[in-house]
Amino acid sequence: MKYIAVKELKEGAVIAEDIYKGASLVVRKGHIVTAALIRKLQQWEINSLPIQSDDEGKQEEKDIDLKKLSEEKRQTLLTFLQDMLQLGNEYRFGYAINDVDSYLWVQKLFVEITSEKSTYGLLQQLKSWDLNTYHHSLDVFILGSLMAKKIGLEHVAEFSKACLLHDIGKLKVEKKILMKTNELSSREMLQMRAHTGEGFHLLKQKGYSAGVTNVLKYHHQPLSTLSKEEREERQIWKKEHDILKLVDVYSALTLERPYRESLSPPKALKIVIKEHGDINIDYMKQFCEMLEIFPQHAVVQLSNNTVAEVVGG
Predict the structure, then answer these.
(1) Mean per-residue pLDDT for 9-26?
(2) Phi, psi of 86 (to 5 degrees)
(3) How far apart are CA 113 and CA 100, in angstroms?
(4) How confident is the model at residue 38, as a pLDDT?
């Protein structure tokens, strides 16, 4: 560990100790330095802070050895990391991905899942077909995996695969519909809504487990629209459905889409609560705690024990 002046900090450095301003915790140990963080530190008049040395991080870096990966997988991982930097900034991910352990855990999980030839191929098809859906799928994978880990879900890798492929049925949706910036026609809406069934049948034909196919099968359907048999089937994977539903809606609202601009995380979380009554409220609380981002107008207790209202746009 060594202390470095804030004005000399480089993006990608890792904070070695918790940083306080007075009695308030402002930066956690393991936080990865970004340009936004450097600006905040300067605003807080923090002049220097402890940074993890290269030697301290070597053991963790061995978790993924790029030299042992095929050229194809190496390029996939590097592309994923670039996309993650775009998707997983502090603005949307809060503190969920800003410690080294979580960051490396998600990388390793992605490599494991995409090592399967079928999954890798489907993901590449999706990327070529519609980049927005591809980015959204990566986003749901990251958020869903971290949330599953937080609540101690069994078979996290299988669920994470379902997150990554949850919109794979959009390969069957016309590109012009996916890219449309105005209201969809009745025919177009039917085709869009059919993507969950298309994805279910596609993955089932390729031999994916029920823990993947059945999780994505109902991820847009309210319980009130399901038959008794479908409800019983969905109940088997209730935890997985509840997590996927939550992170899918949050991701959709906070990422820019062809037909609308992105919403701020606090505003998006407020909409999730207000307009999606079937969201698991306990998971919602844990999700907000994981991000350390809370719904607009929520009242929260700060680390210095003062109470404040969330007013973010």
Answers:
(1) 78
(2) -75, -40
(3) 20
(4) 86
Q: What is the pLDDT of residue 85?
A: 73
Of 147, 167, 124, give the one whose Cα is nearest residue 255: 167
Closest of 163, 165, 173, 183 to residue 250, by C-alpha: 163
150-169 residue pLDDT tens: 999 989 999 999 999 999 99
Contacts 24+ apart (CB under 8 A), 109-112: 109/145, 109/156, 109/157, 109/160, 110/77, 110/80, 110/141, 111/64, 111/69, 111/73, 111/77, 112/157
Token readout for 170 is: 């959009």
Give tens-digit pLDDT for 80-114. 888 877 776 667 888 888 777 888 899 889 989 99
- Percent of the chain exceeding pLDDT 90 equals 42
Q: Which residue has the higher pLDDT, 77 or 55?
A: 77
One-letter identity of residue 249? V
